[in-house]
Amino acid sequence: MLEIRNLHASIGGKEILKGIDLRVGKGEIHALMGLNGAGKSTLSNVLVGHPAYEVTQGSITFRGKDLLQLSPDERSHEGLFLSFQQPVEIPGVPMTKFMQAALNAKRKYEGKEPLSAADFLKLMRERRKIVELDAKLTTRSVNEGFSGGEKKRNEIFQMAMLEPKLAILDETDSGLDVDALRIVAEGFNRLRTPETSAIVITHYQRLLDYLKPDFVHVLIDGRIVKSGGPELALEIEEHGFDKYLPQNA
Predict the structure, then answer these.
(1) Band (167; pLDDT cuts 50, 70, 90)
(2) Is residue 41 part of a domain?
(3) What is the rounded CA–CA span in Å between residue 24 and residue 15?
(4) What pTM did the predictor assign?
(5) Is residue 93 a contact partner of residue 141, using CB atoms and an 8 Å limit?
(6) Distance of CA 53 to CAs 6, 17, 39, 44, Å?
(7) Which tens digit of pLDDT belongs to each residue from 55-82?
(8) d(CA 22, CA 181)
(9) How far apart are CA 15 and CA 8, in angstroms?
(10) Residue 148: inside a domain
(11) Does residue 126 sit within a domain?
Protein backbone atom coordinates (compact mmCIF):
# COMPACT_ATOMS: atom_id res chain seq x y z
CA MET A 1 0.00 0.00 0.00
CA LEU A 2 2.69 2.49 1.05
CA GLU A 3 6.35 2.32 0.09
CA ILE A 4 8.88 4.94 1.19
CA ARG A 5 12.39 4.77 -0.24
CA ASN A 6 15.41 6.77 0.92
CA LEU A 7 13.26 9.71 1.96
CA HIS A 8 15.05 12.93 2.86
CA ALA A 9 13.08 16.01 3.92
CA SER A 10 13.82 19.45 5.33
CA ILE A 11 12.03 22.38 6.90
CA GLY A 12 13.44 25.88 6.85
CA GLY A 13 16.62 24.55 5.29
CA LYS A 14 17.26 22.07 8.11
CA GLU A 15 17.31 18.40 7.17
CA ILE A 16 15.06 16.33 9.46
CA LEU A 17 14.54 13.06 7.60
CA LYS A 18 17.83 11.51 6.51
CA GLY A 19 16.95 8.39 4.55
CA ILE A 20 13.68 6.75 5.63
CA ASP A 21 12.78 3.35 4.19
CA LEU A 22 9.38 1.95 5.17
CA ARG A 23 6.82 -0.36 3.62
CA VAL A 24 3.25 -0.68 4.93
CA GLY A 25 1.04 -3.44 3.54
CA LYS A 26 -2.76 -3.73 3.54
CA GLY A 27 -4.23 -4.34 6.96
CA GLU A 28 -0.94 -3.72 8.79
CA ILE A 29 -0.40 -1.50 11.82
CA HIS A 30 3.07 -0.02 12.15
CA ALA A 31 4.15 1.77 15.33
CA LEU A 32 6.77 4.49 15.01
CA MET A 33 8.59 5.33 18.24
CA GLY A 34 11.37 7.73 19.11
CA LEU A 35 12.40 10.72 21.19
CA ASN A 36 11.10 14.24 20.53
CA GLY A 37 12.77 15.73 17.46
CA ALA A 38 13.55 12.37 15.87
CA GLY A 39 11.40 13.15 12.82
CA LYS A 40 8.18 11.25 13.56
CA SER A 41 5.81 14.18 13.06
CA THR A 42 7.89 15.41 10.13
CA LEU A 43 7.27 12.10 8.39
CA SER A 44 3.53 12.34 8.96
CA ASN A 45 3.46 15.92 7.65
CA VAL A 46 5.46 14.97 4.56
CA LEU A 47 3.08 12.10 3.82
CA VAL A 48 0.02 14.35 3.83
CA GLY A 49 1.75 17.13 1.88
CA HIS A 50 2.31 19.91 4.42
CA PRO A 51 3.75 22.78 2.32
CA ALA A 52 6.35 23.80 4.93
CA TYR A 53 8.30 20.57 4.37
CA GLU A 54 10.53 20.02 1.35
CA VAL A 55 11.36 16.54 0.08
CA THR A 56 14.93 16.71 -1.18
CA GLN A 57 15.50 13.07 -2.08
CA GLY A 58 13.68 9.74 -2.28
CA SER A 59 10.23 8.53 -3.30
CA ILE A 60 6.83 7.68 -1.81
CA THR A 61 4.38 5.38 -3.56
CA PHE A 62 0.83 5.06 -2.24
CA ARG A 63 -1.57 2.53 -3.75
CA GLY A 64 0.50 2.51 -6.92
CA LYS A 65 0.66 6.30 -7.32
CA ASP A 66 3.53 8.73 -6.87
CA LEU A 67 2.38 10.45 -3.70
CA LEU A 68 4.75 13.37 -4.12
CA GLN A 69 2.97 14.36 -7.33
CA LEU A 70 -0.42 14.65 -5.57
CA SER A 71 -1.81 17.71 -3.81
CA PRO A 72 -2.82 17.43 -0.13
CA ASP A 73 -6.49 17.24 -1.20
CA GLU A 74 -5.75 14.45 -3.65
CA ARG A 75 -3.78 12.53 -1.04
CA SER A 76 -6.76 12.71 1.30
CA HIS A 77 -9.16 11.60 -1.42
CA GLU A 78 -6.85 8.70 -2.27
CA GLY A 79 -7.23 7.47 1.30
CA LEU A 80 -4.66 9.15 3.55
CA PHE A 81 -5.81 10.48 6.91
CA LEU A 82 -3.82 12.30 9.60
CA SER A 83 -5.00 12.51 13.20
CA PHE A 84 -3.15 15.54 14.52
CA GLN A 85 -1.08 15.56 17.68
CA GLN A 86 -2.79 18.83 18.61
CA PRO A 87 -6.09 19.15 16.70
CA VAL A 88 -6.81 22.75 15.73
CA GLU A 89 -9.98 24.70 16.42
CA ILE A 90 -11.85 26.17 13.45
CA PRO A 91 -14.17 28.86 14.85
CA GLY A 92 -17.29 29.60 12.83
CA VAL A 93 -17.21 26.33 10.88
CA PRO A 94 -19.94 23.96 12.13
CA MET A 95 -18.86 20.32 12.52
CA THR A 96 -21.80 19.08 10.45
CA LYS A 97 -21.07 21.37 7.51
CA PHE A 98 -17.34 20.64 7.71
CA MET A 99 -17.82 16.87 7.57
CA GLN A 100 -20.49 17.02 4.89
CA ALA A 101 -18.22 19.11 2.65
CA ALA A 102 -15.24 16.81 3.24
CA LEU A 103 -17.17 13.62 2.62
CA ASN A 104 -18.91 14.86 -0.51
CA ALA A 105 -15.62 16.20 -1.91
CA LYS A 106 -14.17 12.71 -1.55
CA ARG A 107 -17.24 11.15 -3.18
CA LYS A 108 -16.93 13.58 -6.10
CA TYR A 109 -13.27 12.61 -6.53
CA GLU A 110 -14.36 8.96 -6.66
CA GLY A 111 -17.06 9.74 -9.25
CA LYS A 112 -19.94 9.22 -6.82
CA GLU A 113 -23.02 11.31 -6.20
CA PRO A 114 -23.08 13.44 -3.02
CA LEU A 115 -24.97 12.05 -0.07
CA SER A 116 -28.36 13.57 0.57
CA ALA A 117 -28.76 15.55 3.79
CA ALA A 118 -30.85 12.76 5.31
CA ASP A 119 -28.34 10.03 4.41
CA PHE A 120 -25.45 12.12 5.68
CA LEU A 121 -27.10 12.76 9.05
CA LYS A 122 -27.94 9.06 9.39
CA LEU A 123 -24.31 8.11 8.68
CA MET A 124 -23.05 10.74 11.10
CA ARG A 125 -25.29 9.42 13.91
CA GLU A 126 -24.02 5.89 13.32
CA ARG A 127 -20.35 6.83 13.25
CA ARG A 128 -20.30 9.18 16.24
CA LYS A 129 -21.59 6.34 18.42
CA ILE A 130 -18.43 4.37 17.60
CA VAL A 131 -16.27 6.83 19.53
CA GLU A 132 -18.96 7.91 22.01
CA LEU A 133 -18.90 11.47 20.71
CA ASP A 134 -21.59 13.60 22.37
CA ALA A 135 -24.24 14.63 19.83
CA LYS A 136 -24.05 18.21 21.12
CA LEU A 137 -20.45 18.50 19.94
CA THR A 138 -21.42 17.90 16.32
CA THR A 139 -23.57 21.04 16.40
CA ARG A 140 -20.64 23.26 17.43
CA SER A 141 -17.72 24.68 15.48
CA VAL A 142 -14.88 22.26 14.73
CA ASN A 143 -13.04 21.50 18.00
CA GLU A 144 -14.03 24.88 19.47
CA GLY A 145 -14.21 24.59 23.24
CA PHE A 146 -13.59 20.83 23.12
CA SER A 147 -11.53 19.18 25.84
CA GLY A 148 -8.37 17.32 24.82
CA GLY A 149 -10.17 13.99 24.92
CA GLU A 150 -13.13 15.33 22.93
CA LYS A 151 -10.78 16.64 20.24
CA LYS A 152 -9.13 13.22 19.90
CA ARG A 153 -12.50 11.46 19.75
CA ASN A 154 -13.57 13.95 17.11
CA GLU A 155 -10.51 13.04 15.04
CA ILE A 156 -11.44 9.36 15.12
CA PHE A 157 -15.04 10.30 14.31
CA GLN A 158 -13.78 12.14 11.21
CA MET A 159 -11.78 9.06 10.31
CA ALA A 160 -14.94 6.97 10.67
CA MET A 161 -16.76 9.26 8.27
CA LEU A 162 -14.03 9.36 5.63
CA GLU A 163 -12.99 5.66 5.81
CA PRO A 164 -9.32 6.15 4.84
CA LYS A 165 -7.09 3.39 3.54
CA LEU A 166 -4.12 4.53 5.65
CA ALA A 167 -4.58 6.38 8.93
CA ILE A 168 -1.64 8.20 10.52
CA LEU A 169 -2.22 8.64 14.26
CA ASP A 170 0.28 11.25 15.46
CA GLU A 171 0.50 10.87 19.25
CA THR A 172 -3.23 10.36 19.57
CA ASP A 173 -2.60 9.22 23.15
CA SER A 174 -1.05 12.57 24.13
CA GLY A 175 -2.94 14.16 27.02
CA LEU A 176 -5.59 11.44 27.25
CA ASP A 177 -6.66 9.83 30.51
CA VAL A 178 -7.10 6.06 30.67
CA ASP A 179 -10.81 6.08 29.84
CA ALA A 180 -10.50 8.49 26.90
CA LEU A 181 -7.56 6.49 25.54
CA ARG A 182 -9.59 3.29 25.68
CA ILE A 183 -12.56 4.88 23.91
CA VAL A 184 -10.40 6.35 21.14
CA ALA A 185 -8.43 3.13 20.64
CA GLU A 186 -11.50 0.90 20.68
CA GLY A 187 -13.20 3.25 18.21
CA PHE A 188 -10.25 2.86 15.87
CA ASN A 189 -10.29 -0.91 16.25
CA ARG A 190 -13.99 -1.07 15.35
CA LEU A 191 -13.22 0.78 12.13
CA ARG A 192 -10.45 -1.57 11.04
CA THR A 193 -10.92 -3.79 8.01
CA PRO A 194 -8.52 -6.13 6.17
CA GLU A 195 -7.92 -3.20 3.81
CA THR A 196 -7.21 -0.61 6.53
CA SER A 197 -3.64 0.18 7.55
CA ALA A 198 -2.18 2.57 10.10
CA ILE A 199 1.02 4.27 11.18
CA VAL A 200 0.82 4.94 14.91
CA ILE A 201 3.26 7.51 16.28
CA THR A 202 3.69 7.25 20.03
CA HIS A 203 6.17 7.41 22.89
CA TYR A 204 4.41 4.86 25.04
CA GLN A 205 3.33 1.24 25.19
CA ARG A 206 -0.13 1.93 26.60
CA LEU A 207 -1.72 2.87 23.25
CA LEU A 208 -0.11 -0.15 21.61
CA ASP A 209 -1.69 -2.40 24.24
CA TYR A 210 -5.01 -1.56 22.58
CA LEU A 211 -3.97 -1.27 18.93
CA LYS A 212 -1.60 -4.27 18.84
CA PRO A 213 0.83 -3.31 16.06
CA ASP A 214 2.26 -5.83 13.62
CA PHE A 215 5.57 -3.96 13.36
CA VAL A 216 7.44 -1.48 15.55
CA HIS A 217 10.13 0.90 14.26
CA VAL A 218 12.56 3.07 16.20
CA LEU A 219 13.26 6.46 14.62
CA ILE A 220 16.42 8.24 15.76
CA ASP A 221 17.83 11.40 14.19
CA GLY A 222 15.80 11.11 11.01
CA ARG A 223 16.48 7.42 10.35
CA ILE A 224 14.81 4.14 11.24
CA VAL A 225 17.53 2.39 13.23
CA LYS A 226 15.62 -0.68 14.41
CA SER A 227 12.52 -2.61 13.33
CA GLY A 228 10.82 -5.56 14.93
CA GLY A 229 7.59 -6.98 16.25
CA PRO A 230 5.47 -5.89 19.23
CA GLU A 231 8.17 -7.09 21.61
CA LEU A 232 10.35 -4.16 20.51
CA ALA A 233 7.85 -1.70 22.02
CA LEU A 234 7.96 -3.61 25.30
CA GLU A 235 11.76 -3.44 25.28
CA ILE A 236 11.63 0.33 24.75
CA GLU A 237 9.07 0.70 27.52
CA GLU A 238 11.44 -1.06 29.90
CA HIS A 239 14.82 0.27 28.81
CA GLY A 240 14.13 3.48 26.84
CA PHE A 241 15.93 4.64 23.70
CA ASP A 242 19.44 5.01 25.08
CA LYS A 243 20.90 2.00 23.27
CA TYR A 244 19.76 3.43 19.92
CA LEU A 245 21.26 6.90 20.33
CA PRO A 246 24.30 7.77 18.15
CA GLN A 247 26.81 7.77 21.04
CA ASN A 248 25.82 4.19 21.81
CA ALA A 249 25.80 2.95 18.22
Answers:
(1) very high
(2) yes
(3) 24
(4) 0.89
(5) yes
(6) 16, 10, 12, 11
(7) 999 999 999 999 999 999 999 999 999 9
(8) 27
(9) 7
(10) yes
(11) yes
The domain in which residue 24 lies consists of 2-244
Q: How far is CA 159 from CA 35, 40, 146, in A?
A: 27, 20, 17
Query: 249 in a domain, yes or no?
Result: no
Question: Considering its fold, how many domains does the chain have in total?
Answer: 1
How long a stretch of residues is the chain?
Answer: 249
Report the amino acid identity of residue 134. D
Residue type present at position 61: T
Among 236, 175, 172, 232, smallest CA distance to 41 is for 172
pLDDT by residue (tens digit) across 6-64?
999 999 999 999 999 999 999 999 999 988 889 999 999 999 999 999 999 999 999 99
Question: What span, in angstroms and rounded, lies between the C-alpha atoms of 210 and 193?
Answer: 16
CATH number at residue 196: 3.40.50.300
**Phi and psi dihedrals of 208, rounded to 5?**
-70, -20
SS3 of the chain: the string is CEEEEEEEEEECCEEEEEEEEEEECCCCEEEEECCCCCCHHHHHHHHHCCCCEEEEEEEEEECCEEHHHCCHHHHHHHCEEEECCCCCCEEEEEHHHHHHHHHHHHHHHCCCCCCCHHHHHHHHHHHHHHCCCCHHHHHCEECCCCCHHHHHHHHHHHHHHHCCCEEEEECCCCCCCHHHHHHHHHHHHHHCCCCCEEEEECCCHHHHHHHCCCEEEEEECCEEEEEECHHHHHHHHHHCCHHHCHHHC
Contact, 169 vs 201, CB < 8 A? yes
